[in-house]
Amino acid sequence: MKEMIVNISPKLKEKLIDEHLSNIALLTGIEKDKLTKMVNENSLYYLFKHTEALELLPEQKERLKAFQASSDFSRLIKREKPKVITGPETIVEIVKPNLQYENQEHLQVALLNVKGDVIKIEDVSSGSITETIANPKDIFQKAIQNSAPSIILIHNHPSGNPTPSLEDKNFTRRCVEAGNLLDIKVLDHIIIGDKGYHSMNAEGTVDFDVQVKKSKTILENKLKNFDINKLRKQSENRPLQR
Predict the structure, then answer these.
(1) Model confidence at 19: pLDDT above 50
(2) 0.70 exceeded by the pTM?
(3) Measured between alpha carbons, how far is 222 from 218 in angstroms, rounded to an integer?
(4) Span 88-224: which CATH code?
(5) How do the domains of the chain map onto residue ranges?
């Protein structure tokens, strides 16, 4: 899956999609009006994922498959001009067409600017939300590289059920705590299913504000117990290495 840049104007997006549909119609012999209707009712991504709705002949299917492999249609999926995040549904609207039919988990991060606009949405990892697959440092590295003061975590459940697992919750808490120490706010973790989504912030699955206080308290306690004089004395008594 490719990075999704969302700062594209609606007019340009419409023009690019129209060009793709014209090419598909020319290549496969499918009526363009039929293709346009399907895309307008669903999405460009849906068109390639549910070719059975087009009732294609075997030869047409092969041509459509070849076009999909050679085109950059995936970069058009829900590419929009920057918008302020007013709730989880704003993010869901952007990412759902790209994630809801995937057969494995994909972790993405939405990078926001100081105004709350989405700068871009980037892939972090594929597989499952575990320590071996998804590492918070990979997420925050992208935020730092793009000077994003806040982020939203996103991943899909191939089972279709967006209910968060224990691993999902623990991973989110780790990210929130890491973000607090880096001064990068984790606003939400949204899980996409085939018929719905789960917002950990909106549903109260993880208390993001409590995690802010907790991580700061942990850091303060570590600093409080840090004895600089003891450290200096240990350093003075340590034999020199030759």
Answers:
(1) yes
(2) no
(3) 6
(4) 3.40.140.10
(5) 4-76, 88-224
